[in-house]
Amino acid sequence: MKVLVIEDEPLMEELLKATFEPLGHQVVASTSGDRIEELLAEHDPDVVVLDVLLFGSEHDGFEVCRRIKASPYRDTFVVLLTALDDDESRKKGQAAGADAYLTKPFSPLELLRLAENRRGAP
Question: Domain containing 53: what range?
Answer without folding.
Answer: 2-116
